[in-house]
Amino acid sequence: MSVQTLKLDCDLHAPLTDAQALVESARCYFCHDAPCIEACPTEINIPQFIRKISTGAVMSAARNILTENIMGGTCARVCPVETLCQKACVRNKAEDKPVEIGLLQRFATDAYFKKNQGFGVRQKSTQKKVALVGAGPATLSCAHKLASLGHECVIYEAKTKPGGRNEYGLAPYKMTDEWAQDEIAHILSIGGITIKSGVILGRDIGITELRSQFDAVFLGIGLGGFNRLGISGEDLPFVHDAVSTIEQIRQAPKNVKVADTVVVIGGGSTAIDIAVEARILGARDVTIAYRRDVTSMRATYVERELAQTQGVKISENLTPVKINSNQTIEFERAGSSEKVTLPCRQVFLAIGQTLLEDAIMPSIEVKSGKIMIDQNHMTTMRGFFAGGDCINGGSLTVRAVQDGKLAAGAIDRFLRSGENV
Q1: Which one, 30, 52, 345, 352, has least CB within 10 Å?
Q2: Pick the CATH number of 18-115 from 2.102.10.10, 3.40.50.10320, 1.10.1060.10, 1.10.155.10
Q3: CA 191, 205, 414: angle at the middle one, nearest 5?
Q4: Three-point CA angle 263, 267, 272, nearest 5°
Q5: For domain 129-224+355-416, which CATH number applies: 3.30.460.10, 3.90.190.20, 3.90.550.10, 3.50.50.60?
Q6: 375-400: per-residue pLDDT in tens?
């Protein structure tokens, strides 16, 4: 895998030129029963949009993408295509390589938004009002669809800027510049969507108020808490949460200082992101310590290879048992009695997040840290729907977008049935 040495604000993969897009799109077999469509969580007709690129109909290709995935620009940048559409590509064989679907999707959506302001047309107003809590991918997807159907949407967001993980949780090398906010501007341009920032559910507005003021409610509240190791030394000042640090890097990178020797505990995309960002910011020695073997990591093989090309070491089968004030961390190696001690001027915990339940319970049922929903994305409280990380415990942006789209359809049916909250 050939990857350039990354800088703080550079694209991981350069966008395709017009000539490159034509050559790459011609590689597609345009399968009739395309497995890549089945592998796409938002069900984009991939062969159709690639065929349009190959014939020069790039704007039409983008419309195909955005109809199914209004955040197709972001997903083109951050989707783990190696485990989704490109893994399913029929050209994905040892003697060949899959079509670069992600890059082609970015080519089309970037071209579209350079020439067009927003996407979609609003239907006549239904006079129905929907509250949406949290302004992440699931909510933005849901709001855009609801607005296009004529409903009025009010989004309540705890932070100062909308975007959720796209704005705060993705490493800068995955999402450069102001793309997250630019995409949101395109989404909001459809009209009928108002965002109220700095509003926290349970503090500034509650379930009872939402119930009385709106015809339906969508909860896209994500996961606001953080898992703990439960070991001695976890509260030492050089131990940090990886998600919060990535947020700081995205918002004010010059204010983030990394030590020369860093240990990251975890095995998912967040662990890879913080490890790579630590290297970009100047850490000399960065080690990811994972409790199982490397093939069990939630991070994809492409993410693992990326980290290693950037000088990150991955140590497998290490379970942390103690963090010491002398800036060392003790591990036990799985399957043996071996003790391993690593130096750590800085430790980042990337071991998952948890749902903050207090603001919604007992009104809405939560089980195993997830909001319970039915087949229509409705929670146990009638008229309250949910999607994104709060229903699945943490997943991909593309799956959150699909949650929002499906929930919007269910909310629309609910509102048109004559019921109300």
Answers
A1: 30
A2: 1.10.1060.10
A3: 55
A4: 65
A5: 3.50.50.60
A6: 999 999 999 999 999 999 999 999 99
